Amino acid sequence: MTALPFIDVAGYWLGIFLTFAILSFLYKDNPFYKLAEHVFIGVSIGYLVVLQYTDNIDPKLVDAVQEKSGWALALRLVAVALVVMLFLKGISRRFHWVGRYPLAFVVAFYAGLQINAVAQAELGAQMKFAAQSIDAEKTDLNSADTEALTKLPGMSPMIAEKLIAERAVRPFTSVDDAVGRPALTEVERKSLGEDRGELVGLDARAAAGKGHRNWFGVFSNVLLLLGLLAALVYFYFSVAHTGVVGQVSRVGVWVLMIGFGASFGLTVQGRLSLAIGRAYSVMGRTVNPSDAEQIHGPYVALISLAIIGLGLVGWELRRRKADGGPGAAPQT
Predict the structure, then answer these.
(1) Neighbours of 178 (CB within 10 A)
(2) Residue 145 is part of which domain span?
(3) Within-domain flag for 228
(4) How far is CA 194 from the centre of its chain?
């Protein structure tokens, strides 16, 4: 067993303590939470400063000024001047107006880049997805390429390559035929077997031959199209939302609420996943067993809880005494 350096062990201990210090906010705002909050912000700012210097200032400014000349050097000096002008906004009351110009330049430049990126990555992708055919044809196992096969439930690039090699010898007659080919291992067959299903699984998405329809996919596409149109009607204010238009717009509200709820649920699940991962880390499940034996995560967790608990009790008694509440000394 290789001994961990003490600095690594101490780092794990500090991480466990700060984890429970953050969770102490569930009781109320307290000094332990403020300590963890300030440490987190300080470390984050320090990390970003070092990262910005090593990734941007050093290679793009210091080295560039030493190596370049002419227009390239002039452009970099202009960038330095804009940065200095930006700092004047925070350190000088007399010349704080100078910082408006580089700030306006940065906002406009960033907005110009982001508008194009968002339009292509989000708006364009959503329009393309909404304009797709409502038909949902199953993937033909005898003609699909590796990329199309990999998108199927239970498929991996290795399984897709094996199926392509198998169909070159003998075409598939059914999904059972493809899954049962001898080139696949038992683990791969089990993976495909777990992801089969007539509704949304492999059987619903793939078939041996063209012309097969994924009827659940067709229903999903129709439902998505109707929901999209109802949501758009809700935002169409040129016509009064009464009668049929009002009823359709009400359906659009429900569609929007379902979408917001699904998004919020996904966010909550992500936070729960982070909490579970942190609990596994505290218990020593994310490191080698030999390292976990040296860290003693559960014992450190109990000690941290005891320190924070006793500290909160002392802090509450001191605060109540200062406020003149229960436990305070009588005034004479």
Answers:
(1) 24
(2) 139-212
(3) yes
(4) 27
